[in-house]
Specification:
Length: 167
C-alpha cells in the first residue's frame, strides 16, 4: 500500500509540474526511491528468510550501521540502509547458500542486477537529499527505471524474483 501510494502521489506531482523546468523535482525522486527502498526491503526479508531456512548460521552474519552492531536476524525488525544489503550479499556464507539454492538467473538477479539497482537509486537519492534539487530528467529517469518505461521495471523484476524464491 505504501508503494502504491508513493507511486500515485509521484505521478500526480510529476503530471502537475512537468512543464515547469524550474520546479524542484526532489520530492518526486524521493517518493519513487522510497517505493524502491520498501520493495527491496520486502524482497531482502523474503530472500533472507529462505536462506536462513537453508542454513541457520546465516542468522548470525553480522554487520554494523553507524557503529551499532547487528546480525541478519535483526533485518526482520529493523530496516537497514541500502549499503547493508550490498554488504550482506557479499558475505561468503550467504553467497555459498545462494549458489546452492537457486538457478543462475535468480543468482544473477540477486548478485548483479539488484546491487546495480541499489547503486542507481542511492546515487540519485543521495544527491537529491544532500545536494542540489532534482531535475525533471532525473525524476523521469527514476520513474522509467522503477515503472519500466521503455525498459524493464525494477518493481516487476523484484516481485517476479520474490515469487521465484517462495516457490
Amino acid at each position: 500500500p505504501n508503494s502504491l501510494s508513493n507511486i500515485i502521489s509521484s505521478e500526480m506531482e510529476l503530471q502537475e509540474h512537468n512543464l515547469d523546468r524550474t520546479y524542484d523535482f526532489s520530492s518526486i525522486v524521493i517518493k519513487y526511491s522510497k517505493t524502491l527502498e520498501q520493495e527491496i526491503y520486502l524482497f531482502m526479508k523474503t530472500l533472507l528468510k529462505f536462506l536462513i531456512e537453508k542454513n541457520k548460521r546465516i542468522e548470525n552474519v553480522s554487520y554494523s550501521v553507524q557503529s551499532k552492531d547487528f546480525t541478519v536476524k535483526d533485518i526482520f525488525t529493523n530496516k537497514p540502509n541500502f549499503g547493508t544489503y550490498k554488504f550482506i550479499l557479499r558475505d561468503d556464507l550467504i553467497r555459498d547458500t545462494l549458489e546452492n539454492s537457486f538457478d543462475k538467473s535468480l543468482i544473477f538477479f540477486i548478485q548483479k542486477k539488484l546491487v546495480a539497482y541499489i547503486n542507481f537509486i542511492q546515487e540519485i537519492r543521495n544527491e537529491t537529499v544532500h545536494g542540489r534539487p532534482a531535475t525533471l530528467n532525473e525524476a523521469n529517469s527514476v520513474r522509467a527505471k522503477i515503472l519500466g518505461v521503455a525498459q524493464e521495471s525494477v518493481l516487476i523484476e523484484l516481485v517476479k524474483n520474490k515469487k521465484m524464491i517462495t516457490k
